[in-house]
Write a structure and sequence with these properties.
Layout: E1 9-22, E2 25-38, E3 42-47, H1 53-60, E4 68-73, E5 76-77, H2 83-93, E6 94-98, H3 109-120, H4 124-137, H5 153-165, E7 171-175, H6 183-198, E8 202-206, H7 210-213, E9 218-223, E10 226-232, H8 248-256
Parallel strand pairs: 3-8, 3-9, 6-7, 7-8
Antiparallel strand pairs: 1-2, 1-4, 4-5, 9-10
Helix pairs in contact: 3-4, 3-5, 4-5, 5-6
């Protein structure tokens, strides 16, 4: 699907192939996948287990390299990079959100959010300032000293999203971000990702759930290592005040540091 004329491509993948040799068998995880994703887009990737969607996400996230094909992220040729270059581009350009949150259990929300900035070489003052700002952005400004055990599942995922945002990435990659959450909390997290997208953040997520994919502008469906469906979703789920900016609930949580999960 082509990129609209008024937006630059952030992700450009051409004929991506990924094969794994397992004993005497060769697994063809990707079979020549090509796609372009524009800056500021919101894309959901669906498919059954083994369809190739997770392999694609690993390549898009610079966690793995294709066997063949070309991949450019913000104009940088990823497929030719070494491990140090891949680590650098992950830290500079990509924020990751995972199903199981991947928070350090004995450290505070703020310390978890600060971790990517440690790798980026920021000093303690810069880390604290930016970390608190990121937590405020996701509605947890008053809970920065809480450990994961003191937070609900939805709040933990908000911490993970703040951690993904703290280095000002160009791309959020979310792998089943609602898979460990109940339906109401899942909707809260998707509304947060939608709000971030409305502010210009590019979001790409993997999900098995059609109601989660419905939040995205564009949906890709994988089968047997190929994209078999690529559609713009005209009936996607909207935030209540999309035409007038961010929803009032999002603005309120950013200002007050409150969270719907905090009330229970």
């Amino acid at each position: 699907m082509p990129v609209s004329a008024d937006k630059s491509p952030l992700i450009e993948a051409v004929e991506l192939v990924k094969t794994y040799v397992m004993g005497d068998q060769t697994v063809h995880a990707l079979r020549g996948v090509s796609l372009t994703i524009a800056e500021g887009d919101f894309v959901a990737i669906m498919g059954a287990s083994g369809s190739g969607k997770s392999t694609l996400m690993n390549i898009l996230g610079c966690l793995d390299l294709p066997t063949s094909g070309q991949y450019r992220l913000a104009g940088e040729e990823v497929e030719t990079m070494g491990q140090d270059q891949l680590a650098s581009i992950r830290n500079r350009r990509i924020g990751f959100v995972f199903q199981q949150f991947n928070l350090l259990p004995r450290t505070s929300a703020l310390e978890n959010v600060e971790l990517p900035m440690v790798y980026a070489g920021l000093n303690a003052t810069q880390r604290r300032e930016r970390g608190i700002k990121a937590l405020q952005k996701v509605g947890l400004g008053e809970r920065f000293l809480h450990t994961p055990a003191e937070l609900s599942g939805g709040q933990q995922q908000r911490v993970a999203i703040a951690r993904a945002l703290v280095n000002d990435p160009q791309l959020i990659l979310a792998d089943e971000p609602t898979g460990a959450l109940d339906s109401q909390t899942s909707e809260d997290i998707m509304r947060l990702l939608r709000d971030l997208n409305l502010q210009g953040m590019t979001v790409v997520l993997v999900t098995h759930e059609a109601d989660i994919a419905a939040w995205a502008r564009r949906k890709l469906v994988f089968k047997d290592g190929l994209i078999v469906e690529d559609v713009v979703q005209s009936n996607r789920r909207q935030t209540p005040t999309q035409q007038g900016g961010l929803p009032e609930t999002a603005l309120a949580t950013t200002k007050s540091g409150s969270d719907p999960d905090c009330e229970s």
